[in-house]
Amino acid sequence: EQLNLRNDVKDNAKAAQLRSQGNKMFHPNVKRYIEAIKLYNESIAFSEKGSTERSLAYANRSTICLKMHRFEDCLENIRLARESNYSGEKLNQREKEVKNALAKARNKNASSSKVSPDVVEEPELSYPVKKNAPQVANCLELRKNEEYGRHVVTTRKLKVGDVVMIERPFVTVLKDSFRYVRCDFCHGERPFTLIPCEGCTMAMYCSEECLSKAYNKYHRYECGLLRDMWEVFEEVSLIDIRMIAIAITTFDNNPEALKDHLDALDESNVNGFTMDWNKATQQDIFNTVHVLTTNQERRDSFFVAFYIFNATILHTLVLERTELGPVCEANPATNKILLDLILRYEQIVECNSKLLSFNAYKVKEYVAESFAVGCYPLISMLNHSCAPNVQRITLPDGRCAVFVIRPVLEGSQLFDSYEADHILNKRAMRQSMLSFMYSFRCTCEACTFNYP
Ligand SMILES: C[S@@+](CC[C@H](N)C(=O)[O-])C[C@H]1O[C@@H](n2cnc3c(N)ncnc32)[C@H](O)[C@@H]1O
């Protein structure tokens, strides 16, 4: 009650309010079209299916598309508005206008010899791949010791610019500011044509295909919880619930099968560097995430209590609002495993999640802007240094490439930076952040010699 938890429901009045805010941004004296599009999208997400509000928001979005010469997108919005029972005449005129403009643009393109498609160069691994793990160069090995736990070592000398890992994320969640700009499933930037989930106000998709893939892969278990979880705990809890959802769908939506699998799993035998990814099932891949470090034994009891508190709320909501409720009620052992997993993944996310970023152009310089948070099974094996020798770069499709940024000697460990590079942060601040979030005291060269 104190957290003011409530079901996420469509709300046409709120949709109308958001659309009118969008209209203010669209006004000829303001012309902040992207802000307007975001507000129209939020209005679409809040509106009920087939409602006047939804049709008006699509119609307004079509106006912006026309203004921005996005003719195909404009036609798509006209189609969506009509599908939502748009009743006015305005769209007929707009459709004519846009079809003419489109025909002209096509004629112009046909007569122009200059066709310059955007060619994006994709990085490739700089060395032959591991036979069992094509996402990793064959010179990388996973080792384990007292000081660092599991860590990644190179068996050959590496030079600056080498690419040694390119990995797909196991799970990702959009950051708030991109919720009404990017597809919640593929994260493609499609603000002009997003369509909403009909069950919640938090997820929009670039296509029916992504909507249905997301639903089957995880959204059916998170749909009713996302808004509350986001309002109370922000992104971390959203990845947590998404990981639980993926775990359950991986076992054919059967939590009992997941429980049996976990009961039989020997965690000490799971090693993503030696596993055969060419033949790996979804369950094998799930195992590599399930065994990521939680640091639970190193955490202060205050934090463990905090995680338990969060997990209890999430668990209660899952029981109340998803189809897992009756299953858990009938089987206390499954209920317990669900709570254990929520608590475990909350902590896994805390110390293993990475930002997915793109290069944004802001006031005369490019800066890395993060649009999502994700978890990568093998990249999670990289330990931290405030003077790292590798750097992660997000590729357009969400894969993460690991580049060497300082020469690395044969037999040395690869070190990533957990957003605590000595160039950007003072030692005291880095150390307190690392100890708070990752439960270790950093003894890297930058900390030892107090690099400026
Ligand atoms: C993303 S995991 C890295 C892999 C981890 N060593 C393992 O065994 O799973 C992050 C955790 O590794 C440990 N870690 C990372 N960098 C470290 C370092 N420089 N020194 C000691 N421990 C470190 C901390 O426990 C941290 O929370």
**Distance linking N and C termini:** 49 Å
Tell me the β content. Answer: 5-15%
Shape: globular
**Cofactors and ligands present?**
S-adenosylmethionine
The domain count comes to: 3
Low-confidence stretches: none
According to DSSP, the number of beta strands is 12
Structural class: alpha+beta
The averaged pLDDT comes out at 93
Series of secondary-structure elements, N-terminal to C-terminal: HHHHHEEEEEEHHHHHHHHEEEEEEHH
Rg result: 24 Å
Question: With helices defined by DSSP (H or I, 4 residues minimum), what is the helix count?
Answer: 15
Helix-residue proportion? 40-55%
For the sheet with most strands, the description reads: 3 strands, antiparallel
Instruction: Provide the spatial order of strands within the biggest beta sheet.
Output: 3-11-10
Domain MYND-type: 183-223
Domain SET: 138-419
GO molecular function, one term: protein methyltransferase activity
Protein name: AGAP012638-PA
Topology, pairings included?
Layout: H1 12-26, H2 33-46, H3 52-67, H4 71-83, H5 90-111, E1 140-145, E2 149-154, E3 163-167, E4 171-174, E5 195-196, E6 204-205, H6 208-222, H7 226-233, H8 235-250, H9 255-264, H10 282-290, H11 301-321, H12 324-330, H13 332-352, E7 354-362, E8 365-375, E9 383-384, E10 390-394, E11 400-404, E12 415-416, H14 427-438, H15 445-448
Parallel strand pairs: 9-12
Antiparallel strand pairs: 1-2, 3-11, 4-8, 5-6, 7-8, 10-11
The structure holds S-adenosylmethionine.
